Amino acid sequence: MSSDDDSEGEVTLAQGLKYGLGLIAIGVGVFLVLTMIEGSSRGGRVHWLIALLYYIGGKWTAAGLFWLGGVVFLGLGIRAQLRDRE
């Protein structure tokens, strides 16, 4: 039995889906948290890296970085599946 992590540096379809959808979900969560913080009069606290990204470009930049990473992983997984099919 081989696990997902035995793939010698290549991303499999399962890994691409798992990490890609996970990063996209984290991006949605970051976007929602930042939207709630903006609408609150009390403010809030987030991780310093997310705060730095928010300071640079707003909530779209902070969440967009996670979305971009998710799309990259999805693309790598799909590419590996298509390459294995040939």
From TrEMBL:
Membrane-crossing residues?
20-37, 49-78
**Which keywords does UniProt give here?**
Membrane, Transmembrane, Transmembrane helix
Q: Carries keyword Membrane? A: yes
What protein am I looking at? Membrane protein
Q: Which organism is it from?
A: Gemmata massiliana
Upper classification of the source organism reads: Bacteria, Pseudomonadati, Planctomycetota, Planctomycetia, Gemmatales
